[in-house]
Amino acid sequence: MKDFFLVKYAPEILQHTLEHLFLVSIAIGIAIFVGIPLGILITRKTYLRQPILGIANILQTIPSLALFGLLIPIAGIGVVPAIIALTLYSFLPIIRNTYTGITNVDPAIREAGRGMGMTDTQLLLQVEIPLAMGVILAGVRVATVIAIGIATIAAAIGAGGLGVFIFRGISVVNDQLILAGAFPAAVIALLADLIIGWIENKLKVKN
Amino acid sequence: MPQNNQTAVEFRDVTFSRNHRPLVSNLNFTIRQGEALVLLGRSGSGKTTTMKLINRLFTPTQGEVLFDGIPTTQWDEIKLRRKIGYVIQEIGLFPHFTVERNVGLVPSLEGWQPKQIKTRVYELLQLVGLEPAQFAGRYPHELSGGQRQRVGVARALAADPPVLLMDEPFGALDPITRLELQQEFRHLQQELGKTVVFVTHDIQEAFILASRIGLMYGGELVVLGTTDEFMRSQHPESLAFLQCMRSPKDTL
User: Taking CA atoms, what residue in A is nearest to B95?
Assistant: First the structure.
């Protein structure tokens, strides 16, 4: 029992889990505060839709280890480049879902709102965003789960997190060590998925 | 019926085109205050387009539409629309608002006091035949089609607009509920003295509600007159519509 990874590395697991959560929550926080407004912007200025979604798409296709590496000359090593990379990865699902959620609002509802004399801002804040909230949160959920996974690689550039166990375990060929990183990471991802999914359901509007 | 000859809305040589294709053309007519003008026509005849030119969801490509004697293009569009109640077939009730908030929408946009809004909403629900205590807190998905349309009408009346635009509001209802609502609405319209522009493709409905019928065909207004005048019209499209009114035996 003493050798079971969850027991053996318990204090370290706690520390790296906190580091992991820190990286992910800062990155998702930034991605939400920038991504949702961008998603709204491209519903209003349609000529920006292609370039913004295009860039977010390209960012998503860069292999994660490569992106961390590419950021070293710009942002050095450690927490900062890790957060930058995770933020960049989180943009696509958040921007795309915000855009989709808003454009999928029933045109009849939008027209009724406009016809009754709602300004564009009123329509956005009182109708479109609340109705799109379920879809927007689904984007946040996907982004969070992806970020939790990718954050394990952040250990490669010295940002800490649960990846530390994994890389150490690989180099010394120790399964227990790898599991000490992989298992908590998977649990966090599942929990995040459940919790955000639950909020999503609460906010989803019945039709 | 409180009807006089003051003009509520006037169309002057109005053409509206989209992608260089005219959807309606050469519209010249006036809507008098307090009348119920029914725009009748088949799908694609331009009746909805005509209606949307009134609350400036569309602006004329040529000519002008006057509301209260002022061209719609010179109105602040938000102010204009808040003077015009609007009911559409899909209703467009906000699914995340209770009945109370839906009906109180325009008053709250206009900055009324919450207490005032509540009184008004209850009054309106009463007026359209929905028991306020029972319905105020419900959401649209908890209502039947007929109840939803009643809420739609109440919402359009909320800020007491002088003009109501209604785009086939009863189209999706079963025939019995439809007739019920048509009759109730006619009484309501006469009682409140609102100017109503009502779009439909249903000649029965036109006859129940109209003080005048405007027949649209291919983007033009081809006949405009009282129901009696419409009955006497020899335009092929009026004859085609009157044909639909015949008893089932005759058409078989």
Answer: A207
